[in-house]
Amino acid sequence: MHNTALLKTGRLCIGYSKGKKEEKTLAGPLDLQIHAGELICLLGPNGAGKSTLIRTLAGLQPAIAGSVETGGKNITRLKPLERAKRLSMVLTEKVRTGNLNVYSIIALGRFPYTNWLGTMQPGDHKIVAWAMDITGTTGFAHRKLSELSDGESQKVMLARALAQDTPLIILDEPTAHLDLPNRISLMHLLHQLAKTTGKGILLSTHDLDLALQSADQVWLLRNDGVFTQGAPEDIVLTGAFEAAFHREGFMFDKNSGTFTIHHGNGKTIRLSGEGAALFWTKRALMREGFTITENAAENIHIVNKENLVVWVYRKISYDTIAALLNALRNRYGTTPE
Amino acid sequence: MNVAIHPATPRFSTPASLLKLGLLFLLLLIAFFTDIAFGSVSIPLPAVWDIIVSGKAENDAWIYIIEKIRIPKAITAVMVGCGLPVSGLQMQTLFRNPLAGPSILGITAGASLGVALVMLSAGSITTLYAIKELGFSGSSLILLAASLGAAMIMFLIIAISARIRDNVIMLIVGVMIGNITLAIVSIWQYFSAPEQVKDYLLWTFGSLGGVSGNQLYLLGIVVAAGLLIAFASSKMLDTLLLGEHYASTMGLTVNRARFLIIGSTSLLAGSITAFCGPIAFIGIAVPHLARTLFNTSDHRLLIPACCLMGTSLMLLCDIIAQLPGSNAVLPINVITALVGSPVVIWIIMSRNNLKNSF
Questions:
Q1: Nearest CA to CA, how far is A43 from chain B (Å)?
Q2: Of the candidates B4, B242, B252, which has its C-beta nearest A95's C-beta?
Q3: What confidence score (pLDDT) does residue B178 get?
Q4: Subunit contact A117:B1, Cβ cutoff 8 A
Q5: What residue in A sits closest to B239 (Cα-Cα)?
Q6: Most buried among B19, B117, B168, B217, by the most CB within 10 A?
Q7: Which residue of chain B comes nearest to A81, CA vs CA?
Q8: pLDDT score at B126
């Protein structure tokens, strides 16, 4: 499946023009490829140029230099209708669609294929029905977008992109307005779509954890224009990830794959135990400003007794993390902020 | 994968919406006949019917009144009732703004400038005399000036719209151009003689009665052209409901669509304003009425719906303006606002949330 590139760039420089002559280059030159069946997550801090890259790839914004090719043609030379048959998009902006019901919104995705009056043929209806089915939006075909939750309406916008029947789908921060369960379900859906339909899917997102879990490839764009691409695990292990999101007081923990707020006020402690209790105790201790290290003077031991978890600290047992933290605060004082 | 076609599929011509269109057409016919039947000269209903059907009546004056005055006026009402709502609908969709209407881009203001130019220009007696000779609202000079004024603003707007990508900025620019134009008219009024200002003010009250003969054909052709362009743009308008960014990712050439939509609006609003004066309210309100009644945003349905509802409403306003049973006639602009505004307030109150249905 991973043989033909659906979209590729050649020495692409992205940026925007300031005034008439001056140009601001954000990143480049980039040689990128999106293959069939691939889910790619574009990550990077705010202002790095994720949206600019996405708009340039979609042919909505001119490149500073280099080319974007799809189906062997430069995307800027494609007529809008041809381009719309190659590539569909889900944008960040929330739309107000008034009295249009969900079915009609998704059917708008057939724009490049219908006649001048937009008459839907049976084949068009079939693709819309398929798009609703695969995104789980069939249930609210008759409802208005304004009556749906953010998660549901984002799925409707995805279904609209699917109805456009393009080999490529590009999504600009599709998870931005969603709560956690909806983010997970949307990312899962995109992952499934890439695998089952063979579409190439590119999305930009701030959900690093989710991206690392579901992406086949990560594109990492740094504020200084440095670009890294690779499998998510490689990106983490080489430290590129930490470097891109480096900020005072934050730390990316390679071992857990999560960001931690790093207080670093010099308190150290030793921790032993296993399983989920170990993981969450570690989180609690780090929040309290402890660095967990083998060389610390004092030890906390987690004992799993049947279904019960007990924390042993200075020979006293505590049966909740809260109680344990209280004891620590009494001894070390509260965390200075 | 074989997926059955979803039952929600027909989105254009459902039996319910066809029935509504049919009923509206019936209402239109009734309103049309009623409008012709009533006026300051009372003509018995059977005689009105005979004149319409066979063109014969016992009284020649009645035939003249019906054929030369009332029917042209009713036909003008039909064209205004089609043209202004459809241009309002297009503006509301293009700018995604429920308050947009034909007057919003300054097109009406442009027509006003043209009219003011003729009516208020020159203290010289000869030009004024020439205008008076031509007759007041039937004056082709005024019509020409209004059309040119509207066209001038329209081309200015189209030229600017090619450079501005954002529709909200475009909207603000349009409103500002309208303001500038009206300010120029005000300066002109300020330095003009009272009689000249009065002529201009009469035009601003609006009138359906000033269009006759060849002018009616001309207005008819221009309005029909505008409506045709609007209907042909309905697929683009539907797509623009998602906003112009989405529309362009779906393959819409936004600039071309905007050119067509602004062009159609200018033809409709410009010609109607030139012939009938700046008729307020209808253009903004009727699209909301149509959306509410048909519960749709599909422009292939909304455009005919706007035409039928707008026409009935204009005819109704004209009937009221005649003040049946009296000799007085009120200016049409007063009636459209007096009748229409409460209707809109009622709709907004009962829908409670215009923003969602818009």
A1: 22
A2: B242
A3: 86
A4: no
A5: A108
A6: B117
A7: B251
A8: 39
Classify residue A53: in a domain, yes or no. yes
User: Where residue B48 sits, what CATH number does that domain have?
Assistant: 1.10.3470.10
Q: Which of A88, A97, A130, A170 to mutate to test the interface with B (most CBs of B within 10 A)?
A: A97
Q: Which of B8, B243, B297 sits opposite A99 (nearest CB)?
A: B297
Q: Does residue A248 sit in the same domain as residue A104?
A: yes
Closest-CA residue of B relative to A165 is: B250
What CATH number does residue A129 fall under? 3.40.50.300
CA distance B3 to chain A (A): 6
pLDDT at A135 over 80: yes
CA distance B316 to B285: 15
DSSP assignment of B211-278 equals --THHHHHHHHHHHHHHHHHHHTHHHHHHHTT-HHHHHHTT--HHHHHHHHHHHHHHHHHHHHHHH--
Alpha helices in B135-166 (DSSP H): 140-163
Asked if B234's CB is within 8 angstroms of A117's CB, the reply is yes
Q: How many CB pairs under 8 A join A and B?
A: 116
Q: How much is the pLDDT for A196?
A: 94
The residue written with tokens 């509207």 in the block is B150
Q: For chain B, what is the domain count?
A: 1
Q: ∠ CA B329-B332-B338 to the nearest 5 degrees?
A: 105
The tens digit of pLDDT for each residue in A55-114 reads 999 988 889 999 999 988 999 899 999 999 999 999 988 888 878 889 999 999 999 999
Domain range holding A286?
267-332
- Which two tokens mark A153? 């309406």
Separation in Å, CA of B182 to nearest CA in chain A:
33
Q: Are residues A161 and A288 in the same domain?
A: no
For residue A78, give the chain B residue with the closest CA: B251
Question: Is B297–A98 a contact, with Cβ atoms under 8 angstroms apart?
Answer: yes
Residues of B in contact with A101 (CB under 8 A): 8, 11
* Percent of chain A whose predicted confidence (pLDDT) is above 90: 47
Which tokens sit at A158? 């995805």
Partner-chain contact B248 A108, CB within 8 Å: no
Mean pLDDT (whole number) for A205-218? 89
- With an 8 Å Cβ cutoff, are A99 and B291 in contact? yes
Residue B131: the pLDDT is 46
Same domain, A282 and A241: no
Nearest neighbour of A125 by CB, restricted to B5, B242, B298 = B5
Q: Is B269 within a domain?
A: yes
Span B69-97, mean pLDDT? 91
Are residues A240 and A301 both part of a single domain?
no
List, for residues A149-187, the tens digit of each pLDDT value: 988 999 999 999 999 999 999 999 999 888 889 999 999
Contacts (Cβ under 8 Å, ≥6 apart) of B174: B104, B105, B106, B157
**For residue A258, is it within any domain?**
no
Would B230 be classed as within a structural domain? yes
* pLDDT at residue A1, rounded to an integer: 45
- Which chain B residue is nearest to residue A164, measuring alpha carbons? B250
Q: What angle do CA A33, A37, A39 make, to 5 degrees?
A: 70
Beta strands in chain A (DSSP E): 5-18, 22-30, 33-35, 39-43, 65-70, 73-74, 87-90, 168-172, 200-204, 217-221, 227-230, 250-253, 258-261, 267-272, 290-292, 299-305, 308-313, 316-318
In a domain, A261, yes or no: no
* C-beta atoms of A95 and B296 within 8 A: no
Same domain, A118 and A173: yes
Same domain flag for A231 and A283: no
Check residues B207 and B75 and name the one with the higher pLDDT: B75
Same domain as A216, residue A307: no
